[in-house]
Amino acid sequence: MNDQEGLAIAIEEAKTSYKEGGVPIGAALVSRDGKLLGRGHNMRVQSGSAIHHGETSALYNSGRLPASAYKGATMFTTLSPCDMCTGACILYGIGRVVIGENKTFLGGEAYLKQRGVEVAVLENKECQDLMELFIKEKPEIWNEDIGEEERVYSKEAK
Amino acid sequence: MNDQEGLAIAIEEAKTSYKEGGVPIGAALVSRDGKLLGRGHNMRVQSGSAIHHGETSALYNSGRLPASAYKGATMFTTLSPCDMCTGACILYGIGRVVIGENKTFLGGEAYLKQRGVEVAVLENKECQDLMELFIKEKPEIWNEDIGEEERVYSKEAK
């Protein structure tokens, strides 16, 4: 599976979450040999979870796996990973993180690189448009999701 | 609530997990004004989850909270937090992490400090004994939980 195909699965998840009224961030975990291990999306609204972000949901839906299953795997995510999801990728030794966009939120990309994880940002407009729409519509949920109190998100404020 | 009282809740959670056949790591999240926001334990064995560690379970069980609820809060955990749980504490702006022990596993303590989180290690023997027992009994589950393949955990190997 190439990067665009992997990201397409993450985008499908993000759109599903948006349709459910949730935070539109999705992710897909793909093994070294191209097998989809798991996919998922943010579940803050849907199940009241503070720990099911896109990436952690993909890990959750991948189930219990031995360490070897994660080695050389790629995490595709529609948005730059927050500190929790950054740490989750590092914990499991995921080799590469492919990011849809990092304009609406810049997460732990530098720390991922520092810890030896390869990072690619695809600058995908669909991912960015979806986040901008959501942040405009539900800024309070977005702030809650990233542990921020007063940050204002808008195209103008960026 | 003082540190020993907070850690006592985390230890109760760890023991519950051990009795359930799971990874004996527990945590409790306590607000700035001493209110228990949530408590939980590792759920890898119990619910097949790769993301419900002690600390993330405490966050999960705390439910959806605004950023203000986490500010100045303390995360009590029986074991030094892994990279994922380290990142989760940073994401939510938790001010302090109180750790039962870091002899059987040393997690992201340095990074927590680097990101401005206060860290205290209580060197609690009960926490250490419980982890040593578990690692001896079920090393393969422990390795899976920390994304390691071949690491050998024993009193002798440390």
TrEMBL record, chains A, B:
Major enzyme class: hydrolase
SUBUNIT field: Homodimer.
Keywords, sorted A to Z: Cytoplasm, Hydrolase, Metal-binding, Nucleus, Zinc
UniProt catalytic activity: cytosine + H2O + H(+) = uracil + NH4(+)
Lineage: Eukaryota, Fungi, Dikarya, Ascomycota, Pezizomycotina
EC number: 3.5.4.1
Recorded GO MF terms: cytosine deaminase activity; diaminohydroxyphosphoribosylaminopyrimidine deaminase activity; metal ion binding
GO BP: any one term: cytidine metabolic process
PANTHER family per the UniProt record, alphabetical: CYTOSINE DEAMINASE (PTHR11079:SF190), CYTOSINE DEAMINASE FAMILY MEMBER (PTHR11079)
Homology family: Belongs to the cytidine and deoxycytidylate deaminase family.
PROSITE patterns named among the record's database cross-references: CYT_DCMP_DEAMINASES_2
Cofactors (names): Zn(2+)
Main localization (coarse): cytoplasm
Pfam families: dCMP_cyt_deam_1
InterPro entries assigned: CMP_dCMP_dom, Cytidine_deaminase-like
Domain CMP/dCMP-type deaminase: 1-119
CDD domains: nucleoside_deaminase
Location within or outside the cell: Cytoplasm; Nucleus
Protein's UniProt name: Cytosine deaminase
Function: Catalyzes the hydrolytic deamination of cytosine to uracil or 5-methylcytosine to thymine. Is involved in the pyrimidine salvage pathway, which allows the cell to utilize cytosine for pyrimidine nucleotide synthesis.
A Gene Ontology term for the protein's cellular component: nucleus
Pathway note: Pyrimidine metabolism; UMP biosynthesis via salvage pathway; uracil from cytosine: step 1/1
